[in-house]
Design brief:
Elements lengths: L1 H10 L19 H17 L6 H8 L11 H13 L6 H13 L3 H13 L6 H13 L3 H13 L6 H13 L3 H14 L6 H13 L3 H13 L6 H13 L3 H13 L6 H13 L3 H13 L6 H13 L3 H13 L6 H13 L3 H13 L6 H13 L3 H13 L6 H13 L3 H13 L6 H13 L3 H13 L6 H13 L3 H9 L10 H13 L3 H13 L6 H13 L3 H13 L6 H12 L8 H6 L2
Helix pairs in contact: 1-10, 2-16, 4-5, 5-6, 5-7, 6-7, 7-8, 7-9, 8-9, 9-10, 9-11, 11-12, 11-13, 12-13, 13-14, 13-15, 14-15, 15-16, 15-17, 17-18, 17-19, 18-19, 19-20, 19-21, 20-21, 21-22, 21-23, 22-23, 23-24, 23-25, 24-25, 25-26, 25-27, 27-28, 27-29, 28-29, 29-30, 29-31, 30-31, 31-32, ...
This protein binds one DNA strand of 10 nucleotides through helix 5, helix 7, helix 9, helix 11 and helix 13.
Length: 610
DNA sequence: ATAGGGTTAG
């Protein structure tokens, strides 16, 4: 069992990108479902009393705590300073408590600098201090430093515990280094005095989920059931959430009922995940049902639950409805947060209403320190998509003045913006800059840049970049190959394109509809229409059905090669398959009609195809 | 006192 688990962990480490793998965009749904949802939703809200428990709970809990609550980094630094001046000095426990609180606020670099202050003042760390420190380095993707803290344990004679190892495993998994995570787990299990606990297993489950490997996650859950370390709510929530993100809502709901049968009660997190899943599927009625169900169990939706609703509505283009939800939040005394506003901004940008997005941005600015990197990236994306790259750049410069650090996504957004307006030079400069600033390019960065270079006739630079990707052992996917094959075809290098195409299977990659369509287009450009038609048959045989775009491509290819009658036959096939001629194909057909030299026998066919 | 599930951008 252990061996298999570790193989799975190791296998999950093949990709370079640390973020959860790309998941498809939700499809569009008709507005009628929303009306149903909105009505139910209103009914739900008006039938509910506003937030019955929150105030009493905080009142009860607050006075019992002996350490004061730190809410900002500034607080932490001030309290820390005062403590350092106190005589006698508070114990290491007191200092560590502050580190823990700052770490909870996710200000990891602040924790590190506070830790260094401790050291400078001669306060030696304890096990807790070092564990917190390791966790911070893990979240900063600095596993090297995490491991050197592990060395520090031994140096000062402290013994690392389950927390230490679980935190390190989490760090490795966050950096997509599954093999090392597995090695550590192995050491723990062999060591005897430090056995993995439920959190260790949950961490590994989360690692599988991050890679989209739900079945490995479920397998581990089953193994836990057999062993002494039974899965808890977190284990179930982790998998339910992952299934929902993949819109495998039925599986998630099965796990949900299974969990309740075992006497594990769901919480707001469970319901938020499920609601997210059904919303992505456009099942608004089901979302309302789940909302009602959770409230009936005295589990109250919080800001994150509502954010799921706001965001999905925005992604479906229904910003008006999303605004309605925000109003309801405010009515119910649930303050919209940065995420709420970011979703709204993105919703406006998707509809091209960048002015409204800008308004939301300014609203956030007026409320104090509400904007974050995502807010900037969202608005930058909005401007880039409208080809207003200079305004996007202004925002980019503005964010660093605010002390916000642009990340890989921010750079990718801008790179794409530059490429799409043909300013590939600027893009390449920015590409160097991002690396100089320590932001690692990921597969998407390369795909953006490769596409920009190919589309702007800089094929050799593109191939050079591709070589760089291979050298870095990046997880090169089919999208990258599609870009290159297309670039080669457009540049007239059909042979090289064909080589790449034929070599795909040896790289463990399967051509998708786009790959075939690109190759078909390339063959047509080179006048090899019959080979193109063979490929059209071949793709179908290999289980990859051509789509409307494929048919339009090959039909245009035949027309360009003056094989009008063959084109007409293909139009028939296309229609039988339920696809139709797009604007540019139609234009070509109209032009054929306007040309006098067309064989009169073909006229009825041509007219029939319109 | 310390680690672990749910929301946003390419």
């Amino acid at each position: 069992m252990l061996k298999m688990m570790m193989r799975n962990i190791a296998a999950s480490s093949s990709s370079y990108c640390t973020s959860r793998r790309w998941r498809g965009m939700p499809c569009l749904h008709s507005n009628s479902t929303v009306v149903v949802f909105a009505n139910d939703y209103f009914a739900f809200l008006h039938s509910q009393p506003s937030k019955p428990i929150k105030s009493t709970r905080t009142q009860l809990e607050q006075p019992v705590r002996n350490s004061l609550k730190i809410t900002t980094v500034e607080d932490a630094f001030n309290v820390f300073d005062r403590m350092l001046q106190m005589r006698p000095r508070p114990s290491v426990v007191r200092f560590t408590q502050i580190l823990g609180q700052v770490s909870k606020l996710k200000h990891y670099s602040a924790v590190i600098s506070l830790y260094n202050q401790m050291g400078a003042s001669g306060i030696g760390p304890d096990v807790y201090t070092l564990n917190i420190l390791i966790n911070c380095y893990c979240h900063l993707n600095q596993m090297g430093f995490s491991l050197s803290v592990l060395g520090k344990f031994f140096k000062v004679g402290l013994e690392p515990n389950v927390f230490t190892f679980t935190t390190l495993i989490n760090g490795f998994l966050l950096e997509n280094r599954g093999a090392e995570a597995a090695t550590l787990l192995h050491k723990m299990m062999r060591g005897g005095n430090c056995q993995p606990d439920v959190v260790t297993f949950n961490t590994i489950i989360r690692g599988f989920c991050m890679k989209g490997n739900n079945s490995a996650a479920i397998q581990l859950l089953r193994k836990m059931e057999e062993g002494p370390c039974k899965p808890n709510l977190v284990a179930y929530n982790t998998i339910i959430d992952s299934l929902c993100k993949d819109t495998l809502v039925d599986n998630a709901l099965n796990l949900f009922s299974e969990m309740m049968c075992k006497g594990i009660a769901p919480n707001a997190i469970t319901y938020t995940s499920l609601i997210h899943g059904v919303c992505k599927l456009g099942e608004w009625k089901e979302a309302a049902r789940l909302l009602n169900e959770m409230v009936s169990k005295n589990i109250f939706p919080d800001v994150r639950t509502f954010n799921v609703l706001v965001d999905t509505l925005c992604k479906e283009g229904m910003v008006g409805e999303a605004e309605g939800v925000v109003e309801m939040m405010i009515e119910r005394d649930i303050e919209p947060n940065t995420v709420t506003y970011n979703s709204l901004m993105d919703g406006y940008c998707l509809r091209g209403e960048i002015g409204k997005a800008q308004k939301v941005f300014e609203l956030m600015l007026s409320k104090g320190s509400m904007v974050n990197v995502v807010s900037y990236s969202t608005l930058i994306n909005g401007y880039c998509k409208r080809k207003r790259i200079d305004e996007a750049m202004m925002l980019f410069l503005d964010m660093s003045h605010k002390g916000l650090v642009p990340n890989t996504i921010t750079y990718n957004t801008l790179l794409d913006g530059f490429c799409k307006v043909g300013r590939v030079q600027n893009a390449q400069k920015l590409f160097s800059e991002m690396q100089a600033c320590g932001q690692l390019p990921d597969v998407q960065t390369y795909s953006i840049l490769l596409d920009g270079l190919c589309k702007n006739r800089q094929l050799s630079r593109a191939m050079q970049l591709f070589g760089e990707m291979e050298a870095k052992k990046l997880d090169i996917n089919i999208v990258i190959y599609n870009i290159l094959i297309e670039g080669l075809c457009i540049a007239g290098k059909l042979e090289s394109a064909r080589d790449l195409f034929c070599g795909l299977s040896s790289k463990g990659l399967r051509p998708d509809v786009r790959t075939y369509t690109i190759m078909i287009n390339g063959l047509c450009i080179a006048g090899l229409t019959s080979e193109a038609e063979n490929l059209l048959v071949e793709m179908e045989v290999k289980g990859c059905s051509p789509n409307g775009y494929t048919y339009n491509t090959i039909i245009r290819g035949f027309i360009h090669n003056k094989q009008t009658s063959r084109a007409m036959v293909l139009i028939q096939t296309m229609k039988e398959k339920g696809f139709s001629a797009d604007a540019s194909t139609t234009e070509l057909i109209v032009n054929l009609l306007l040309q006098d030299e067309v064989d009169p026998a073909l006229l009825p066919l041509i007219k029939g195809s319109l």
